[in-house]
Amino acid sequence: QVQLSESGGGLVQAGGTLRLSCTASVSGDSFSSYAMGWFRQAPGKKREFVAETRSTWSGPITHYLDSVKGRFTISRDNAKKTVYLQMNSLKPEDTAVYYCAATLSGTYSISEYDYNFWGRGTHVTVSS
Question: In 19-127, where does DSSP find H-type helix?
């Protein structure tokens, strides 16, 4: 069982930055086995994939939603059981509740249905 807790959301002006954190409560050293993702849900819209990172023998690999490439960076610290989402050059359309998610699936997926564990979310509001 994995419990996830997000933090770091808030109100920021367009062009600003925020860093989201997600800390996992998981037994032993198993955190590194989980692929960790960030999703977001804007008001009136479906939840969408934002970014994902997973550990491999050759190092971490990452994937991003096209609209955040070059602006957002996902990273993880396995020793701290924490995954981060650095968000730069924020735009009003980035306004959403951001969720952290975890999966043991070995296959990259942007589907929320492939993630087994979820945090409660943190609000990000970008004003114009």
Answer: none
Instruction: Count Cβ atoms within 10 A of the Cβ of residue 42 and give its class: 0-12 exposed, 13-18 middle, 19 or more buried.
Output: middle
| CA gap 93, 67 in Å, rounded | 10
Closest CA to 100 of 45, 31, 28: 31
Nearest to 95 by CA among 13, 37, 22: 13
Query: Where do we find the tokens 């989402």?
Result: 85
Over the stretch 23-64, which tens digit does the pLDDT of each residue have? Answer: 999 887 789 999 999 999 999 999 999 999 998 888 889 999
Angstrom distances, CA of residue 100 to CA of 57, 84, 111: 23, 9, 13
